[in-house]
Amino acid sequence: MSNVEEIINIIEKSWGVNSVGCPFGSCAEEFANDQMIKIARKNNFPADVIEVIKANPIKYGEYKKFDNGVGIGRYYANLIREMK
After folding, report:
1. Helix (H/G/I), strand (E/B), else coil: 54
2. Tens digits of per-residue pLDDT, 2-16?
3. How much is the CA Rg of the chain, to the nearest whole Å?
4. What does the alpha-carbon distance between residue 62 and residue 10 come to, in Å, rounded to a whole number?
5. What pTM does this model have?
6. Has residue 28 got a pLDDT over 80?
7. Calpha distance 47→63 (Å, rounded)
8. Cα 42–43–47 angle (5° rounding)?
């Protein structure tokens, strides 16, 4: 899988970015980062994408914590968009 838009769509769908709430709800930073890596591996994201995710874990000081998880998906989707 090398299509960036396809990767972003998977991230947004997994985190419920375009819906009422995330299937994981609000979660701790460590859980969010681990969950994103699991999503990436399950969907066979390229190694460089997984490395970017690992190197840029979400920090709630810089991001809203209580947004039902959809902001987490937006964070990771924007992270991948910046890779282009």
Report:
1. helix
2. 688 999 999 988 887
3. 12
4. 23
5. 0.77
6. no
7. 25
8. 95
